[in-house]
Amino acid sequence: MKWKTIILYLVVGVLASPFSRAQERLTLERAVQLALENNYDIRLTRNDIEIAKTNVSRANAGMFPIVTGNFSTNNTSSNTTQTLSSGVTQERNGARNSNLSYGPAFNWQVFDGFGMFARYDRLKELQKLGETNFKLTVQTTLADVVNNYYDLVQQQQQIKALNGAVDISRLRLKNSQNRYLIGRAAKLEVLAASVDLNTDTTNLLRQIDIYRGTKIRLNELMARDINTDFTVSDTIIIQNRLLLADLQTSANEQSPDLQVALINKRIAELNLKQVKAGRYPTVSLNSGYNFNKSTSELGFARSSVGRGFNYGMTASVNIFNGFLQKRNEKNASIEIDNAKLEYEKINQNISAQLTSIYQTFQTNLELVRLEQQNLEVARQNLDITMEKFRLGSVAPLEFREAQRNYIDASARYTNAQYQAKLAEVSLQQLSGTLSLE
Prior knowledge:
Blueprint: H1 2-16, E1 24-25, H2 28-38, H3 40-55, E2 66-83, E3 89-111, H4 115-181, H5 187-221, E4 230-231, H6 244-254, H7 256-276, E5 282-296, E6 303-316, H8 324-391, H9 396-431
Parallel strand pairs: 1-4
Antiparallel strand pairs: 2-3, 3-5, 5-6
């Protein structure tokens, strides 16, 4: 009997450890708040938005002039022989020559075929794309948090049911042992009760391991210490008033995926404008102020100094580049067609997913109602069977069957609730309406 006592103490210790000590009570609202503040994907995407905002400037689009300060110096030392027109020859070894030049330079491309305006609009669209991707990341993270949170809720309910099953199996084993000692039960009944207790204990330990793994995943989503312990709510609230028509309308207006496709289409159209700018001339203004000084040990001018203002204009137009302009415009037009097709594809995909998941959602709501009734029947059956078992009027196998029916009914009920919640979250995520309300 010693090994049975060891198993009993081990089971009690394992079952007590996750729930007996004081733990943080984590609400869904708090979990979402921590994820929105700390989640790495959200923080990275938020930084991308800041970069996109910084890039939206007329200077980045090429609308502003460029002013540079230039400085150059050049020095030489050479052996030189010069023959002048008079026939006189001059020779100098190590003759030094120097040239110094510096000054500001101004360049402004005032016209490039309207390409700079298309670039500026494209930068603004890229900012919108970043903001929409941020919304998509937030929605995805929110869905992950909600799904993992309610996964813990349903697992917690299963652990309670399995814990109760272990208590009942332990009571059954004790009863069988007492009956065996007074000669009213066979050894086989005691062994069967012991095997069932071990089976229930194994199922409980496995469920606790899954529960702890899901906790780690939720802590990871909240970007906090993965070993932080906590408990969650004990109920799953399902919104059963969702309408497919409303979801479809919300998806057309708010779906981040559709918004991304629309922005990409707009970017493709602006890219075509930039390509078409190559058909127009480019006009640039340039100016500057330059100081120049040169010295030479040979020649007529030993020293020269100059300073002055310069200005001018440059214009150029593409006359022929091997039909590359036509090819680039054709490719840009195809990109617009691809963006349109991508939008239509995503729209159809979202519509199909909404319809399919909505049917699953309705089925799960019906299963929740059915399994709730089954659970109540199984509970009543177990209560009656336990009372008969205490009186000794129920066979062990019949008692075990009632016990298993209750455990299975409890698991099916919590799983039906969880699956309905998953379908609800998926519908709201696809329609862009996911929130905690």
